[in-house]
Automatic annotation (TrEMBL):
Keywords: DNA-binding, Transcription, Transcription regulation. The lineage of its organism: Bacteria, Bacillati, Bacillota, Clostridia, Eubacteriales. It comes from Candidatus Acutalibacter ornithocaccae. It comes from the Bacteria. This is LysR family transcriptional regulator. One of its GO terms (molecular function) is DNA binding.
Amino acid sequence: MQRAASTLRRKGGITRRLERLPIFIDLYETRSYTKTAQKNYVSQASVTQLVNSLEEEFGVKLFDRSTLPIQATAAGKQLYHDAKILLRQYIQLKEVLPRLEQEGASQIRLCYTSQIDLQILLPFVRQFKAAHPAVAFQVELCPFRDASQMLWAGKCDGAIGIDFEPEFTQGMETLVLYEGEYQALVPQGHPLFQREVLSREELYQYPLVMLSPEVLGRSYDGMIRHAQLDGYYPHIQQTANDLASELFVMLTENLIGFVPDNYFPEEYRGQLRRIPIENGHHQFRLELKYLPGENPAVPLFVKELSNYLKNQ
């Protein structure tokens, strides 16, 4: 919506207009003048006035008020999409520009979903920092299900994870960090503990523990789907909200879990064994999703990371 963006820049000062956009965004998302007014601590009349002024400036109707709740028009949907991007970029500029002026440095913000992600990145980041000391890194752990939305909302420059939500990652770039398969993690004392390889029949006759759907998001459904491709429906006896809790449950409840083939919890060596699953469908792809063109340090980081991975 080039017309909308240019109007926002042209009339009345970009700062004032951008700072009014959250009200429009909230109205779009709640479909309620009352909820929008309460959320922004303004009157319903102020919300109405804002929408009317936007419609007057753009020369289009943004909402169909003949329905309850109100519905966005095609123009309203487009403005919502562009407003989210403009507002996100504005917030980033407010945070980044003063820091760049003071420090003369760039910062790359990464969201990761497990400690395995950082284990893969750490050797490269040390190498990258040696070559580019002015670039700082900020990392934040988030649940699998939240990684896509955090990236879409501009809370990070890149997110590392698997099974990203497609509705939040359209138009984003992807770098594959690792491709592998899930293996069974079997506790000491379990009947399968001494096996070198597990058949699918052996694996699925025993109860399992997994990270919860609230943590895994799409990945949880993916694990179920992989099992069904093997011809089974897994008996998930218990779920956990983090890896440490999942490992605790494995050991105390004598349940089988799953881990990537590039990870083993060394603190439990001797108490747990990672065992391959014969002819299973539990493959995964660890990816870095990132926003192109918003942070000048990101393309350099991605290019050098790509070259680093090719040489591993």
